[in-house]
Amino acid sequence: MNEGRRTIPRFVPADDAQAVSAPGLPTLLVVDDTPEYLMILGEILSPEYRVRVASHGAAAVEFARQAPAPDLILLDVLMPGMSGYETLAALKSDPRTADIPVIFVTSLDATEDEQRGFTLGAADYIVKPVRAPIVLARVALHLELKRARDGLARKNASLAAEIERRSAAEVTVRELNAALSARSAALERSVGDLEAFAYSVSHDLRAPLRAISGFADLLRESDGERLTDDGRGLLGRISAAATRMSGMIDDVLAYSRTQSATLNTGPVDLRALATDVAGELGAAYPAATITVGELPRMRVDAAMMRQVFANLVGNALKFSARSEAPRVTIDSSAGADGVEIAISDNGAGFDPRYADRLFGLFQRLHSQKEFGGSGVGLAIVKRLIERHGGRIAAQSQPGVRTTFSITLPSEARIADR
Questions:
Q1: In angstroms, what CA-CA distances link 268 with 220, 293, 304?
Q2: Mean pLDDT lowest for which of 37-46, 183-192, 267-276?
Q3: Which has the closest alpha carbon to 127: 87, 78, 91?
Q4: DSSP code of residue 356
């Protein structure tokens, strides 16, 4: 079939080494059993592309399966052994080569031949004898379409991976939300159980306490004159202890309610609130000087903040009462992480090594004999401040200065008009 045909020696097909050395240049595979056409197409295409050649279909399929795979194949239809149609079918049936665009280059120009080629998956159809501008234009067009398809496939793969990642993240978030909801529900049940327990205990304790106090009063009235001085002293201590126990029960109930009480925030003038509390408590300490500085207006729960000021100012007055000139100062400052309100006094203070114990339930750093109290007030203050998203800390230099610092979130502050 090929006898007597002249070989054109100018075109040299690309080899694997050239493919590696020029990775940016598209690789074309030209398949034709006629050497002249291999040379003609090679001469047309080689200035712009790496060109490899195959003289029959089986070689074309083998070349296409090797790496790097060709970017486009120009395929003759009429070849001995394995026709172009059979070669195309083999290429399309292999996932490794199915996406390589194939352009038929053939002398068959009947409509049914073109239709058969397109049905099998050919990208285009060029009729021999070929013209260089048409070949170059068709090749450039289909390479550009392939680049677009490859880019879209990469984007789709990236999008699919992102969707999968987000789906996994959503599953994780749902699982975490479910776990959080379960923990929140368990915590609410625990809080409710603790409140019920606190109420039950306090209710059950009140009855025997009332009996103790009542019988102590009856004993004092009926047999007080017959008791010795020591007996009357012991009876007084029983009554005092019962009274103190009753106060502790009230404090425990107050502490348990701080967590469940509804937070009703609104604009509050803290200076006016602190001044009011200072006036009420200061009446019992006429020797004390209470100074209320500039305090901001903030969006807080007025009742809770009144309780905070009452506890802290009350403590400051109590612990400074034995000073030569008791002084209590209430002031504020703006910090990077919120509004700080400081309540300071010049009283007894406490050992700063144990500052972290101050806010625990029933924690006391002074004996009952020195300073009365149940040790619950500061624990209540801490809970109320935390309900507002704030925090509380304490510093002390015993006998010189003690300061309780409340930090409330900056966003709760109301701008001055």
A1: 49, 16, 11
A2: 183-192
A3: 78
A4: G
